[in-house]
Amino acid sequence: MAKAKSYFFCRECGYQSSSWLGKCPECGKWNTFDEEVVKIDKPAFGQGRGQARQASEPKLIKHVTYSETQRMTTHCAEFDRVLGGGIVPGSLMLLGGEPGIGKSTLLLQTVLAITDRKVLYVSGEESEQQIKMRADRISTAGENCYVVSETVTQRIFEHVSSVQPELLVIDSIQTICTETIDSSAGSISQIRECTTEFQRFAKETGVPVLLIGHITKDGTLAGPKVMEHIVDCVLQFEGDRNYGYRILRSLKNRFGSTAEIGIFEMQGSGLREVSNPSEFLLSRREENLSGTAVGVTVEGVRPMLIEVQALVSSAVYGTPQRNANGFDLRRLAMLLAILEKRCGFKLAAKDVFLNIAGGIKVSDPAIDLAVVSSILSSNVDMPINARCCFAGEMGLTGEVRPVARVEHRVAEADRLGFERIFLSKYNAKTIDQSKYNIEIVGVGVVEEMFRKLFAGS
Ligand code: TYD
Ligand code: MG
Known about the structure:
27% of the residues lie in helices and 26% in strands. The protein is an alpha/beta fold. It has a nine-stranded mixed beta sheet, sandwiched between helices. Strand 9 and strand 10 form a beta hairpin. Helix 2 (103-113) crosses helix 3 (128-138) and helix 8 (329-343) packs across helix 9. The mean pLDDT is 86. Residues 97, 99-105, 134, 137-138, 266, 268-270 line the site of thymidine-5'-diphosphate.
């Protein structure tokens, strides 16, 4: 007979305690403990914790062999790139994202594209008919894709042993439960136990498992942090739902770099890979309008040209308004203070609105120079040449600071046919102008940039 016992779990970090606590000793948050009844039973897969499952033997590291070709391709260049070249056998991956962002669509589309291997797609959220309706929208072949609507791990492993898939997808971990634990699906102990069962399954059979996980309101993966420790790879799918583009990022990857990102566009018939993000993010500009500037940013390791738009107008109310979409409001306040001090920009008398085109969020400091240029362009109502772009960070004294990966940025701007790029003079020194058609303009301080920018136009 199984032993039933109740434990208290911290909602934030998954810390387990036998009594209720007001403050979590692990993460320091207050009032986060919930009681869950846990019945300890034989786990669904393997022999359970602490017991030897397989005879293991220490080996010299030089005698351990593996081959890179073992990686399974997803037939989607953007997805493969984020994974570091494909799916590693026996790995457990977690794909997180807000509801409705397209996680199910991405994974269903991926498994439908894998025709050379058997794949099992388990959904705890949708029926087989609903999955089929989605598959018809995406309309990819899906020769070897099995689907099943199931929520109990014990039965999932039964399906696995009858289908013998080479890839298992679980949509989503919050809807799955194991019979060994009494608490409801989505509770911390359930998520932790189910994840551990899938991990055990992946490691023992070599079949990779992709889990979908939801994201809570504050942007963290729902469920305890421990889940992120168990899995090999944490991917995040993000984007603004009002816009079509989506970014797939890797937050943790035991088998590859976390610097890579994949870009997709949500269309009526599923997700389309965007291999050329800059062309996608730059809005078509026919005429020169004041208040826009193009910044050359780097997301992960990929350079992207992004348009920044600013609107500066006289403040109607006593307190001027500041608003920024896709840019940190505190950083905007700092840049405005620099402009006031260095360029005679009368902060208190102006409302400033800033918008990063495409609904994208930029955290690369190299966008600073494009932000200040767009604000000043709108302030003096003089357009910046549309073939001009910027990459530089602002220092508090008004100096233009160098940025990382400057060669990549210049090469991308050059490739897209830009004629002039403004950089920090320290960056400009390191670049060989003769390799590019684009004119490289190095500037030391922000005043110098404005003289060059507006005097020349
Ligand atoms: P979904 O994959 O269900 O999101 P998640 O699993 O992350 O909750 O995506 C749902 C959204 O995607 C929905 O708003 C409709 C849209 N969508 C398309 O625009 N085109 C398509 O081909 C599909 C399948 C979905
Ligand atoms: Mg879904």
